[in-house]
Amino acid sequence: MDASEHRSGGGTGTGTAAEAWLQAQLNAHADEFVVMPPDFARIDARHHGIRRRRAALVACAASVLTVSTMMAAVALTGGGGEAEVTTPPTLLVPTPSAETAPATPAPSTSAPATIPSTTEPPRPAPTGTGGTAPPSSGAPNPTGTAAPTGGTATTRAPARPGGGSGDPSTPGTSGTSTTSGGNGTAACTDKNVRISMSTTEDSSNHVLLTATNIGATSCTLYYHPQVVLGDRHPTPPMESPAKALATIAPGQKAYAGVRLWNDGDTPPEHPVKSFAVNLQGRVANTPAGHPIDVQVPREIIALDVGTNPLSTLWNTDVDAVNRYLYAR
Amino acid sequence: MRPDDAAAFQEFVRSRWPRLVRTAYLMTGDYAEAEDVAQTALARAGASWRRIQASERPDAYVRRILVNCNNNRFRRKRPTLVFGDKPVDVPGPDPTHRVDQREALRDALLRLPPRQRAAVVLRYWEDLPEAEVALVMGCSVGTVKSQAARGLDKLRADPALSDVAPMDGAAGLPPSAGRQAQREKQHGRV
Q1: Phi (first) and psi of residue A248, to 5 degrees
Q2: Interface of B with A in 81-100 (CB under 8 A)
Q3: B52 CA to chain A: closest CA distance, Å?
Q4: What angle do CA A252, A254, A260 make, to 5 degrees?
Q5: Pairing mode, if any, of strands A245-248 and A253-259?
Q6: Smallest Cβ distance to B138: which of A25, A234, A271?
Q7: pLDDT tens per residue, chain B (190 residues)?
Q8: Residue of chain A with shortest Cα separation from B155
Q9: Which residue in A1, A12, A46 is closest to B40 by CB distance?
Q10: Going by DSSP bridges, is the β-strand pair A193-200/A310-311 parallel, antiparallel, or unpaired?
Q11: Whole-number Å distance between alpha carbons of B134 and B165
Q12: Closest Cα partner for B122 from B91, B144, B107, B100?
């Protein structure tokens, strides 16, 4: 063992003979070779490469902002058209434990009145951001994002990693979002968010996660929830790389869907009765707080999980999540 | 990175490197892969060093990156998992049976599912409390317990290790027999 090694130690206490045996085996196995010194130059080169890629991502986001501004300008001068909104095929019912959620989109079976929104303003917006204000409001729009004519013009949230595509099938990347959403707010953690799950009788393959802000300030759910189901890896996002965020004020909710298995997956050996949800920070794949344990409701008993479960990005619009989830 | 931060990061790398490589070796079964995974984890840590340094548990943070890097490696290379270079042996006498035993343990570890392997390594080699393993793996404490217990059972039941693994009780039952029967009963299998 190298003298400079760091030992954390003291965790197991080796309760049984089997544990003591395994610990001795692992210690003997791992200590039987000499570790070469670290290659500082290579580590430095690699972490500088990571920083360069991050800088490039920021530059990309800035260019998206520029394009968004131009689109807003076109919309304000009469170029905006009526947005097309499709009716979701099937909808999950959010958890019945909903308390007051003043600005949360109501979970209904009808098509949403607005284009799905990735971000919501931390405070009620005075100017119809999100295209929901009546056309006659006439108030100046400090954010410059909502159109005064019918609320149909949209812009993409700036500084969002990867930007928005406008495709309703990608929750969190489409629709009317404000420039303030998500920016400057802290990431939601296990301290200020409660997560519950629900399913629908129509499908045993889809789970809806509902995150409720139980804190006193707004927070942002970045990217997608990394759900650990049994011995599976944390769920990756569906298809597109993680690039969305959802800001929720106190009492508000955000949603994400989980697809548990795909056709051709091998049957699960151990049905899952609880799972952990890992929230992400501003930087993708970095943890925000501790894992949040979610118990499967008794009436559901357990979830069958395939070999490659996936989760959608967080979104404040439950209809958008359902539409995306059930299309897969 | 500021000079102070760079110096602190270098010191962190120097002190943690051997331990991280050994942990990665137990997870990958390959020395070169282990070095690469440890290097990747530290490079990612270096890219966010100020935040990690300010956190309460920089070691847990880096271990988590390490586990994630290993998961990514597994995803990429699952179909072509090859047991590569052997580690550099310490000079000196090394009885043949000991080498065999080491390789048997390495192969048995590699036969575990990756998350079970991670739970076993973090719990019994890193000697971390279950709560910290849960934090590193991003799962619940209950999952850590079950994963570590299943991993232990599988290792004890592995034919390559059956000669050296302790048996359960006086009856001498195979290690996992009782637990497996209990699981099958729970799931209604006959």
Answers
A1: -125, 130
A2: 87-90
A3: 11
A4: 150
A5: unpaired
A6: A234
A7: 778 888 888 888 888 898 899 999 998 888 888 999 999 999 988 888 888 888 878 888 889 989 888 887 765 554 444 455 555 555 555 556 666 677 788 888 888 988 899 999 999 988 899 998 998 888 888 889 999 999 988 888 888 777 666 665 433 334 444 444 444 445 554 3
A8: A22
A9: A46
A10: unpaired
A11: 26
A12: B144
Asked if residue A242 lies in contact with residue A223, where contact means CB atoms within 8 angstroms, the answer is yes
Q: Is A255 exposed, middle or buried (0-12, 13-18, 19+ CB in 10 A)?
A: buried
**Could you tell me the end-to-end alpha-carbon distance of chain B, in angstroms, rounded to an integer?**
61
Q: Tell me the Ramachandran region of residue A93: left when phi exceeds 0, alpha when psi lies from -120 to 50, beta otherwise.
A: beta
Residues in chain B with CB shorter than 8 Å from the CB of A230 are: 143
Q: Which residue has the tokens 């984890």?
A: B41
Q: How long is chain A?
A: 328
Asked whether the beta carbons of A252 and A120 are under 8 A apart, the reply is yes
Q: What are the chain B neighbours of A273 within 8 Å (beta carbons)?
A: none
List CB contacts (< 8 A) between B127 and chain A: 7-12, 23
| Both tokens assigned to B17 | 């490197």
A295 contacts in B (CB within 8 Å)? none
Quick one: B185 exposed, middle or buried, by C-beta within 10 A (0-12, 13-18, 19+)? exposed
Contact: B102, A32; criterion CB under 8 Å:
yes
Q: Is B24 on the interface with A (CB under 8 A)?
A: no
CA atoms lying within 13 Å on the CB side of residue B163 = 7
Task: Count CB neighbours of B111 within 10 A.
Answer: 14
Q: What is the reported pTM?
A: 0.48
